[in-house]
């Protein structure tokens, strides 16, 4: 069979139906001695049916670590009979998609082994522990158990949750168990056919340099043959008990600043919550119940389901994802709608306005509410003051609203900017943890840690990204939709005590600092040709930066992939292909490729003083950003055609 397949594949390559990289990767794949029956039969079917486009998608490259680890399709565009197995035609296939560029047994096992080998090298002689969690996606439980059994064979003790748990809980539990690392099986809010593998270091943070590159080297050294590296370890993964949930919930509650605000929320507010078929259902209802918050669940969205059948995209950034929750809120006369993505690290929300309509909050607005509320409350409580303010810090990504910088300037606290990816915020938190000088950091009460940081280190007020990810405590080293939900309810309760909605409170912030408006434009380029286009577009903007847009001249240009850039603390920002253009009249454009999806992202922002009323200022800013985005899309097409 291999000889016949080889001849057919060579013929397709000569006829330019297969990319050169696809051809060489298929040759290597066919040479493997441990191919499974599903792999052999699937490859044979795809070749015999001349599914060259599908083969190019599956084999033109290997999965590689990006912003969040390894992520890719676990179900092919064409599902083979062998992959379908005994599963029904309308459900998930029985087996993951074969191929070097797919999330499947071979790649997951290699990733787990490469990660374990790196930890064994970093912690020689130690009895290694790794915590594994997963979301509700297709094959997520299967992949997490595969990781667990693979690690046990390498004499690494694996800890699994009894069922799906969120990414932030995984981060917390790595620290709580004093494990050496963690693995999260998730593709966040990607389409249903995707899945992923995210690796976490012992501090509970996603891998950063130099760890990330070293793990990649270990994985690449394994190549596609993983079995020969397995040792003779025996045993089964340990299943975590309910105490793991209790410890995490207790930690989340340390973010509460004004218990009376939650008491007001209990009395005056009604919430509608949706986990969008994901992990939020495990923790968020428990948090709301503990504080006697009145809430309703969206019945059709509380069941874990990797098909995400009630939404086009399980992404709280997408207004359509909140539509069922908003309909229920209108029917039941609720005040706030909250939704979290499948792995529970991003939270979106909508708030009822004076006309009884629900207005969606952007990720920038949610983070701004948190930053202003927490900073102002800490000063009101006397925890922050003029003497220690310089030791308090807000952290944001470079593409997140500059309103955070204005808030920091107003209160004389620091605002640190990082690259996109919450792992960079997590790295700052590790730095502050080490600066505290406290041994066994997590075992010190929260108030004691804060007091020490305000005396000799840095106290983390909160951090966030425009993509709906925030964290209000350093007990976790990733964005946390569970704590964000509790924080939003607290802020809403505080606003209600002062006869305001969240929208009123947000407007009061704009009245103080001016109106900040942002728009994210994305362009999708899938497959090998798409990857090349993304590279070409970024190269074009790097070599030929725009001189002006809509009459606004460019006054600044930063290339984060070539020049050295340092943050406000003097730390070197890692190199990344990200281009920042500053234009007249407080206008800014940042361009970067997504680390997890085949997209190029354009971040547009403007800042306007309020001169003719806030609503008029909002309308003008929205119109300006929409027109700007139209021009950018036209500009990209011209650059591609060139």
Structural notes for this entry:
- This protein is of the alpha/beta class and 642 residues long.
- The protein contains 21 helices and 21 strands.
- The strands form four sheets. Strands 1-5-4-2-3-6 form a six-stranded mixed β-sheet, sandwiched between helices. Strands 16-21-20-19-18-17 form a six-stranded antiparallel β-sheet. A five-stranded mixed β-sheet has the order 8-7-9-10-11, sandwiched between helices.
- α2 packs across α4 and α16 crosses α17.
- The longest helix has 28 residues.
- The radius of gyration is 25 Å and the shape is globular.
- 47% of the residues are buried.
- The mean pLDDT is 94.
The main sheet orders its strands as 1-5-4-2-3-6
Q: Indicate the low-confidence ranges by residue numbers.
A: none
Helix content: 40-55%
What oligomeric state do the depicted chains represent?
single chain
Shape: globular
Q: DSSP helix count?
A: 21
Strand content: 15-25%
Structural class: alpha/beta
Q: What is the overall pLDDT average?
A: 94
Please tally the β strands and state the result.
21
Rg, Cα atoms, Å: 25 Å
> Mind describing the biggest β-sheet?
6 strands, mixed
> Between the first and last Cα atoms, what is the distance in angstroms?
45 Å
List keywords for this structure.
alpha/beta, 642 residues, six-stranded antiparallel sheet
Gist of the model:
With 642 residues, the protein is an alpha/beta fold. Helix content is 42%, strand content 18%. Helix 6 crosses helix 9, helix 11 (259-268) packs across helix 18 and helix 16 (422-436) crosses helix 17.
């Amino acid at each position: 069979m291999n000889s016949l397949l080889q001849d057919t594949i060579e013929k397709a390559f000569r006829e330019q139906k297969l990319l050169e990289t696809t051809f060489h990767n298929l040759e290597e794949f066919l040479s493997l001695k441990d191919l499974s029956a599903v792999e052999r039969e699937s490859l044979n079917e795809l070749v015999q049916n001349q599914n060259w486009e599908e083969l190019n998608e599956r084999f033109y490259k290997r999965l590689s670590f990006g912003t969040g680890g390894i992520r890719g399709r676990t179900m092919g565009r064409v599902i083979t009979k062998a992959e379908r197995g005994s599963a029904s035609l309308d459900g998930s296939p029985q087996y993951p998609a074969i191929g070097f560029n797919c999330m499947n047994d071979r790649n997951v096992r290699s990733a787990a082994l490469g990660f374990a080998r790196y930890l064994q090298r970093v912690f020689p002689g130690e009895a290694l522990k790794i915590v594994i969690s997963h979301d509700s996606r297709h094959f997520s439980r299967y992949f997490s158990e595969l990781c667990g059994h693979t690690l046990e064979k390498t004499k690494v003790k694996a800890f699994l949750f009894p069922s799906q748990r969120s990414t932030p809980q995984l981060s917390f539990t790595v620290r709580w168990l004093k494990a050496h690392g963690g693995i999260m099986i998730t593709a966040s809010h990607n389409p249903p056919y995707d899945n992923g593998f995210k690796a976490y270091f012992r501090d509970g943070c996603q891998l950063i340099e130099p760890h990330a590159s070293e793990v990649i080297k270990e994985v690449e050294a394994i190549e596609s043959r993983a079995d020969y590296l397995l040792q003779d370890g025996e045993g089964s993964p340990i299943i975590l008990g309910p105490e793991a949930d209790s410890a995490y919930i207790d930690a989340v509650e340390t973010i509460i600043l004004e218990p009376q605000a939650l008491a007001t929320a209990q009395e005056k507010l009604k919430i509608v919550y949706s986990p969008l078929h994901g992990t939020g259902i495990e923790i968020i209802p428990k948090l709301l119940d503990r504080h006697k918050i009145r809430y309703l669940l969206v019945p059709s969205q509380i069941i874990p389901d990797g098909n995400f059948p009630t939404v086009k995209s399980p992404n709280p950034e997408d207004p359509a994802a909140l539509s069922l929750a908003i309909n229920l809120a209108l029917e039941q006369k609720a005040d706030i709608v909250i939704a979290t993505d499948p792995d529970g690290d991003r939270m979106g929300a909508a708030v009822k306005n004076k006309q009884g309509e629900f207005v969606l909050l952007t990720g920038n607005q949610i983070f701004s509410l948190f930053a202003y509320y927490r900073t102002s409350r800490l000063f009101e409580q006397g925890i922050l003051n003029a003497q220690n303010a310089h030791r308090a810090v807000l952290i944001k990504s470079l593409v997140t609203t500059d309103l955070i910088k204005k808030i920091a300037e107003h209160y004389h606290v620091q605002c640190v900017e990082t690259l996109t990816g919450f792992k960079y915020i997590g790295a700052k938190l590790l730095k502050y943890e080490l600066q505290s000088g406290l041994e066994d950091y997590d075992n010190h009460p929260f108030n004691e840690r804060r007091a020490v940081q305000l005396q000799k280190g840095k106290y983390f007020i909160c951090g966030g990204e425009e993509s709906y990810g925030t964290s209000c405590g350093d007990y976790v080293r990733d964005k946390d939709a569970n704590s964000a939900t509790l924080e939003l309810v607290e802020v809403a309760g505080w606003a209600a005590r002062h006869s305001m909605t969240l929208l009123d409170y947000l407007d009061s912030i704009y009245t103080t600092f001016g109106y900040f408006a942002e728009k994210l434009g994305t362009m999708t380029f899938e497959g090998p040709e798409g990857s090349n286009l993304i590279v070409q577009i970024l190269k074009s903007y790097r070599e030929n930066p725009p001189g002006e847009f809509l009459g606004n001249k460019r006054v600044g240009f930063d290339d984060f992939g070539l020049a050295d850039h340092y943050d406000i603390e003097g730390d070197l920002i890692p190199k990344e292909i990200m281009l920042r253009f500053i234009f007249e009249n407080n206008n800014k454009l940042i361009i970067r490729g997504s680390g997890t999806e085949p997209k190029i992202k354009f971040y547009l922002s403007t800042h306007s003083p309020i001169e003719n009323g806030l609503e008029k200022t909002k309308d003008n800013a929205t119109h300006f950003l929409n027109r700007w985005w139209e021009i950018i899309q036209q500009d990209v097409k011209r650059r591609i055609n060139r």
